[in-house]
Amino acid sequence: MSGRFLARLVPRSLSQFGRRWLHRRIPPVRRIRLNQGNLFIFISGQGGFFLLTTTLVWIGATNYQNNLVLGLCFLLLAVLFVAIHQTFLNLSGLELRFVSAEPVFAGQTANCVIELISSNQRQQLQLGFPGQSDVLISLDGNRAGYAELPVTTHQRGWYRPGRFLLQSRYPLGLVRCWTWLDLQPAVLVYPRPLEGPALATSSPDGVDHGQPV
User: Fold this and answer.
1) Which residues contact residue 170 at a Cβ distance below 8 angstroms, ignoring those fewer than 6 apart?
2) Is 45 within the bounds of a domain?
3) CA distance 70 to 62
4) Does residue 40 lie within any of the structural domains?
5) Deepest in the core among 12, 59, 107, 122, taking most CB within 10 A?
6) How many domains does the chain have?
């Protein structure tokens, strides 16, 4: 068994395992309410740099026994903990459901309408299907919001794009909270229309050069 074959096989196996695990953890539903059971959270790239800088400052403050700088480190860590809490709350309790999708012809881009329901304000929610453009939306808490997620179609029939990514880094960008949701969206795709024959045109001399019927 060649190394190149193993290089292709291992990522594929991990991807299949991840999809099966995600299917058990967050099964497909038409409507879902987000909570600690279906949300994931981890520090972002900016958060990692922030944590590394704080650690280096703490090492220097410990080495030189500088209590003022140590207090600054504890303050920065407190900011990180608050960011974790607030980023999680920005998604927790949010309800989502698939509304509809207008029929399109094969090859066109369809828009899957997702309704977002919340009694609280939600800021900078980013949604999108893999490989497609993302949509950024905020909710004021007084009424439901609607996000139209674009997805490119290829074949006729019922197209089911599957899971889309919902994520947020609000408020400080130090932490990323996300989830993969399958609200069972479906798009009716019509066959691509065939191009008809060219219409007859008249030449400058007034003679019709169209094809006879």
Assistant:
1) 86, 87, 90, 123, 124
2) yes
3) 7
4) yes
5) 122
6) 1
With a CB cutoff of 8 Å and minimum separation 6, the contacts of 144 are: 115, 116, 117, 118
pLDDT tens, 80-96? 999 999 999 999 999 99
Q: What integer pLDDT is reported at residue 30 of this predicted model?
A: 93
| Residue 100: count of CB within 10 angstroms of its CB | 12
What would the two tokens of residue 153 be? 């179609």
Q: What is the DSSP string of 123-172?
A: EEEEEE-TTS--EEEEE-SSS-EEEEEEEE--SSEEE----EEEEE-TTT
- Output the six-digit token pair for 81: 């903990």
Q: Confirm if 180 and 192 have CB atoms less than 8 A apart.
A: no
Pairing type for strands 104-105 and 187-190 reads: parallel
Assess if residue 96 is contained within a domain. yes
The list of the chain residues with pLDDT below 50 reads: 1-3, 5-7, 9-10, 213
State the residue range of the domain holding 70: 33-191
Do the beta carbons of residue 179 and residue 34 sit within 8 Å?
yes
Phi/psi at 212 (5° precision): -70, 145
* Global pTM value: 0.80
